[in-house]
TrEMBL record, chain A:
Limits of the Phosphoribosyltransferase domain: 43-230
GO molecular function, one term: glycosyltransferase activity
Keyword Glycosyltransferase: yes
UniProt-recorded name of the protein: Uracil phosphoribosyltransferase-domain-containing protein
Record lineage: Eukaryota, Fungi, Dikarya, Ascomycota, Pezizomycotina
SUPFAM superfamilies noted in UniProt: PRTase-like
Annotated stretches, region: Disordered: 1-24
Gene3D superfamilies xref list: 3.40.50.2020
Pfam families: UPRTase
Organism expressing this protein natively: Aspergillus keveii
InterPro entries attached to this UniProt entry: PRTase-like, PRTase_dom
Keyword annotations: Glycosyltransferase, Transferase
Automatic annotation (TrEMBL), chain B:
Protein name: Uridine kinase
EC number annotated for this UniProt entry: 2.7.1.48
Domain (Phosphoribulokinase/uridine kinase) ranges: 27-215
Phosphoribosyltransferase domain residues: 258-441
Length: 230, 454
């Protein structure tokens, strides 16, 4: 999108729990819906919108910004983790009853795309305490104007792990695409990559979802159009 | 809409009503001459019962504020404090009537120095037995109707005068001349005219006041019997409500968390006795955070337009009003880490409700609610586990009694029994309930023990 064009806001709609009548629901701009099976947008609850409002507001201070984005990131991580496999697991509870539950299966690791992705590490650690976190540094090459891999440090056994790829803002998807290529080159199957993202642009996420059909994207919000320079 | 009174919006029908033990208050009136030992008798009764829900209310708190002229007279010991006219019986009747219905009341604070009612008041809530003590406790016929037991304490008038002199000099800093003057001008005539006639309308006359152990013992026994009756009645109400509600479908206000793989996985870890405590705490906090986030979906949001750093407009939402929480101790404190993770500066009140092991009756032991709680837009009630829901019913009732509207309450629990949920939803249909998992019936409370490690 060119810098001059005002982004068209997504249609405003009433948000709120089902037990509220439409009249009682406040209106707000919610995520654009996008029909790719591998793109999962968090439920647009009024609370999520309120959190997004806080982080979008230029008047929000740094401490609040960090706090509120962490809350969204935790919700993203929780949603992302639900895509991991589990196996049935029965336990005898402390009161001597049996409970048929599940056990987490498969090892995971986080990979943050520096430097914005690093901001999501705390949220990931809040949900997965001792998770390993790899790093990838991608910058735009001055000559070619294309994203270029500058640095990567990933767990040695990454090909055996599920990878939670972290990047909060997703515009054209150049860095994310390159990061996925790097992971695939390390032997990580595409279907074991989960891309966690706060705000995405619709065209970028569509290209990305088509290019990597087996990878899953979990995002909080898809904008009508996102400024490239973010 | 049916018309429901603002404070008691609890019931959908008479049979659905939860009645806490304090809604059936017994009031014992103790009258007698000044210095006869009323206070000592009342104190002795309370001491031998040693229960938080037996409370003494002293009628002195209901003295009327004096006009400047009366104030001058009072300082010259020329004001009659022993006449019924000096007591604000209307306020007292109102207060006792409210207490009898289980409401919270504000007891005035009277300053003997300024002869004025003070701006601040003392809140009084949830006594099961109230001892009303004052020289004219049996005077007003409206109060007589509210009293369950009427006691008259009697002592020799010389003894009374002696005690009064000692007390007024020591505790109220008065001079002997003034005390004697007041005694003969007001106290004694008033005794003959107003106090002594109460003797004939009393149920029990206790001669020799505090020394009369037999009489005090009898009163104590009577109160104990009353308390037992109340407790049985309370348990029976809870039982009845359980039967009524067990047939029903869960109300839409009961939100059971989606059982996603991660959520079930966390439940599995929590229920596995082999899980280390450190892991238990971690997964409990993680699970509870999701419950709190869910609970916040139900709060009030209004449209809020903001400008992004790129100077675009965004039509967002902002949370309206104050969200506070009340932890039902002791289990509720386990949810506070998750609460603070979500709302770091959340105003948090406490209510300690213990279930009596003998008869499974919930008992309210302690209460500290944030001031202005009735104006908060959402009040979360935190309890990690709810089996029969007795404590939950009581906690919701406590909030409603403190002016919180039923629909502003969100009860948050990790695990609950189905019949307990049905009962809570039947009695308080507008309260929202967020539940992590449906557990089997009559599951003992074990989560707090695991979380706190003892």
């Amino acid at each position: 999108m060119s810098g001059n064009t005002e982004p068209i806001p997504s249609p405003a709609q009433g948000v709120g729990p089902v037990y509220r009548s439409d009249k009682e629901k406040p209106t707000a701009t919610v995520s654009k819906s996008i029909s790719y099976e591998n793109v999962h947008v968090l439920p647009q609850t009024p609370q999520l919108i309120a959190l997004l409002t806080m982080i979008r507001d230029q008047g929000t201070g740094r401490a609040d910004f960090i706090f509120y984005s962490n809350r969204i990131i935790r919700l993203l991580v929780e949603e992302g983790l639900n895509h991991l496999p589990v196996v049935e697991h029965s336990v005898t509870t402390p009161v001597g009853r049996s409970y048929l539950g599940v056990k987490f299966e498969g090892k995971i690791c986080g990979v943050s795309i520096m430097r914005a992705g690093e901001a999501m590490e705390q949220g990931l650690r809040d949900c997965c305490r001792s998770v390993r976190i790899g790093k990838i540094l991608i910058q735009r090459d001055e000559e070619t104007c294309k994203p270029k891999l500058f640095y990567e440090k990933l767990p040695a056994d990454i090909s055996n792990r599920w990878v939670l790829l972290l990047d909060p803002m997703f515009a054209t998807g150049g860095s994310a695409t390159l990061a996925v290529e790097v992971l695939k080159a390390k032997g990580v199957p595409e279907e074991r990559i989960l891309f966690l993202n706060l705000i995405a642009s619709p065209s970028g996420v569509a290209d990305f979802a088509e290019r990597f059909p087996k990878l899953r994207v979990v995002t909080a919000f898809i904008d009508q159009g996102l400024d490239e320079k973010k | 809409m049916e018309s429901i009174s603002p404070v008691y919006s609890a019931a959908t029908g008479p049979e659905r009503r939860y009645s806490p033990p304090w809604a059936d208050l017994s009031i014992i009136g103790i009258a007698g001459s000044s210095g006869s030992g009323k206070t000592s008798v009342a104190m002795e009764i309370v001491k031998s019962l040693n229960l938080p829900w037996v409370v003494i209310l002293v009628m002195d708190s209901f003295y009327k504020s004096l006009t400047p002229e009366q104030h001058i007279k009072a300082h010259a010991n020329q004001f009659d404090f022993d006449s019924p006219d000096s007591i604000d019986f209307d306020a007292l009747v109102q207060c006792l009537g409210d207490l009898k219905q289980g409401k919270k009341v504000e007891i005035p604070v009277y300053s003997f120095v300024e002869h004025q009612r003070q701006k601040h008041t003392t809140p009084l809530y949830s006594p099961h037995v109230l001892i009303l003590e004052g020289i004219l406790a049996l005077h007003d016929p409206r109060i007589m109707e509210l009293l369950d037991v009427k006691i008259f304490v009697e002592a020799d008038m010389d003894v009374c005068l002696g005690r009064r002199v000692l007390r007024d000099v020591k505790e109220r800093g008065r001079d002997i001349d003034g005390i004697i003057k007041q005694w003969f001008n007001f106290v004694k005539p008033s005794y003959k005219k107003f106090v002594e006639p109460q003797r004939s309308v009393s149920d029990i006359i206790i001669p020799r006041g505090i020394e009369n152990k037999t009489a005090i013992g009898m009163v104590v026994q009577h109160i104990q019997r009353k308390l037992e009756e109340k407790s049985e009645k309370h348990s029976a109400t809870l039982q009845e409500l359980r039967l009524i509600a067990s047939e029903e479908k869960l109300s839409p206000n009961v939100v059971i968390m989606p059982q996603t793989p991660q959520f079930v996985g966390m439940h599995t870890i929590l229920q596995n006795p082999d899980t280390e405590q450190v892991d238990f705490v971690f997964y409990f906090d993680r699970l509870a955070s999701l419950l709190i986030e869910k609970a916040l979906d139900g709060t009030t949001y209004t449209a809020r337009e903001v400008e992004t750093p790129q100077h675009n407009k965004y039509n967002g939402l902002g949370q309206e009003g104050t969200v506070s929480a009340v932890a039902i101790l002791r289990g509720g404190s386990c949810l506070e880490t998750a609460l603070k993770r979500t709302i770091p500066d959340c105003i948090t009140g406490r209510v300690l409700i213990q279930t009596n092991e003998r008869n499974e009756e919930p008992e309210l032991h302690y209460l500290k609610l944030p001031p202005g709680i009735e104006q908060h837009s959402t009040v979360m009630l935190l309890d990690p586990q709810m089996s029969s829901g007795g404590a939950a019913l009581m906690a919701v009732r406590v909030l409603i009694d403190h002016g919180v509207a039923e629909e502003k309450i969100v009860f948050v629990t990790c695990a609950a029994g189905r019949s307990g949920l049905q009962r809570l939803a039947a009695v308080y249909p507008r309260t929202k309930i967020i539940v992590g998992r449906i557990e089997e019936e009559r599951e003992p409370r074990w989560m707090e023990t695991r979380y706190l490690g003892c």
